[in-house]
Amino acid sequence: MTWLVIGYLGSLAVLLISAFWSLGELSGHIEGTTLEHFDRIYTEGVYRAISLRTIGVAAAVTVTDALIAFPIALYMAKFARPRTKSLLVVAVLIPLWSAYLVKAYAWRTILSEDGPLNWLLSPLGIDGPGYGLFAVYLVMSYIWLPYMIIPIYAGLERIPDSLLSASGDLGARPGYTFRRVIMPLAFPAIVAGSIFTFSLTLGDFIAVDLVGGSTQFIGSVVYDNFASNLPLAAAFTTVPIIVMTIYLLIARRLGAFEHL
Amino acid sequence: MRLSSRQLISLRIATGAVLAFIYVPLLIIGIEAFNEARTLEWPPPGFTTEWFQRAFENTGARDAFLYSLKTAAIATSLALVLGSLAAIGVSRFRFFGREAVSFLIILPIALPGIVTGIALNSTFTEVLGIKLGLLTLVIAHATFCIVVIYNNVVARLRRLSTSFEEASADLGATPWQTFRWVTLPNMRTAIVAGALLAFALSFDEIIVTVFTIGIGDETLPQWLLNNFSRANQLPIVNAVAVIVILLSIIPVYIAHRLSSEVDSGQTAGAAP
After folding, report:
1. B37 and B249 in contact (C-beta within 8 Å)?
2. Cβ atoms within 10 A of the Cβ of B21, count?
3. Which of A176, A237, B201, B224 is the 20 to 30 Å CA partner of A245?
4. Is the pLDDT of residue A24 over 70?
């Protein structure tokens, strides 16, 4: 256990320290310390645009997944019969753990020039979105969706049915019960799910590479630079680290940690 | 809460649509793998099982498959011991920093994989001076496998009343006997389920992998990644992709059955 904590935190520390190294122009050896990399990451327009784009897509994916996940989670938790319910749980849970790469690849196939989507859309005279920023958003929403469904389902499952009947008995219509009883109680679970959808999108570079065309994300810049310019790559990882730390602190305040 | 039949129907339709959204892309890869044409042609002109045979005969894919199995097996065993011990420590003993440990242990999964990957990479190569290889890959995989096993075991121990352990101690059992004959049998299915999930996760992992794998080594996902862009490998890639889906689904399914036997209907460790 100590091994885990020391090893993991130690590695993070090494990463942060390496962001301060200055490398010799030709030798590539460490020559001293500098703030240059932080300066570039946080002030140069290119990097700022990439950061904003990544954070923006991560936020969009999170909102999309919450909207898609809620109805199915609600059905699973409150309306499905026991047998259907356990089937649905398995159906959602299985793709959660498996085949990240294959899922991204499946979309690469679907969105490709001669792929199924264009075939489906061509009679209507429309072209599919192809590879690019929209494809990244779509694929990320797809891949991380189960990570949102499961916590929301578990959160809704915890709400006692009697509470909902009580609300109904007191004259509330379903819409009102939904807004005033279900939503406030389920909100921390949504935040818990959003930790995963947000964080996983924030650090991705492989799906971005597969379906993003020339779109660059924080992850792709880090990956491209890590062999040639480790300090710059390390400095760039501080963006997701800081964003996630703030995100986790807010999530904890909202009570999301009990739903992880 | 009672819904009008129209509301209930729209909820059902939404559920069906989401399930379709989840499974159609996987199905498409499944169909493509049997596509007779060497290129991506949709709809496929005909079907064949030739590519699966070719995939099995492909030495690159086979080596990568064995390497993945080896990595996943070692990383899971390592995580099994450490994750279970951490879970017992956090849920059965009070000590300084207990809250902090329970928070820190989820970090490897809450932080993006790329951060973990690059952090471990620079620690291995720049600080410890270890050459990247099986050892570094296994350690890297173990960091997130531990989380999965820890989560599963902690969830079980939380539900398991300590009165059994106290009864055992009152009847004169030594701490070791209590652990061996009371705690361990109750934890067993949670440990097995956690291990299966960890195995599937390790088998499937790619992001941390690319930062910690040795030069010249290949796991199966990495073989896939390296071959995506090679047009002549396309049919074999599709077949291997289907094999990867099946291989990562089976352990997850068994794990789910194992945990739902005990808590009937509860999810296996919910989100990681």
Report:
1. no
2. 14
3. B201
4. no
pTM: 0.83
Structure tokens at B215: 């030069």
Closest CB to B29 among A109, A112, A168: A109
Supply the DSSP string of A133-166, one letter for each residue: HHHHHHHHHHHHHHHHHHHHHHHHHHS-HHHHHH
DSSP structure class, residue B162: T
Identify the three-state secondary structure at position B85: helix
B210 touches chain A (CB under 8 A): yes
Whether residue A141 contacts residue B68, with contact meaning beta carbons closer than 8 Å, is answered with no
How many residues make up chain A in this entry? 260
- Cβ–Cβ below 8 Å for A68 and B265: no
Task: Report residue A169 as tokens.
Answer: 């008995």
Residue B78: phi and psi, rounded to 5, are -60, -45
Q: What angle do CA A230, A232, A233 make, to 5 degrees?
A: 65
| Residues of A with Cβ-Cβ distance to B105 under 8 angstroms | 4-5
Strand ranges for chain B from DSSP E: none
Q: Which two tokens stand for residue A215?
A: 């779109």
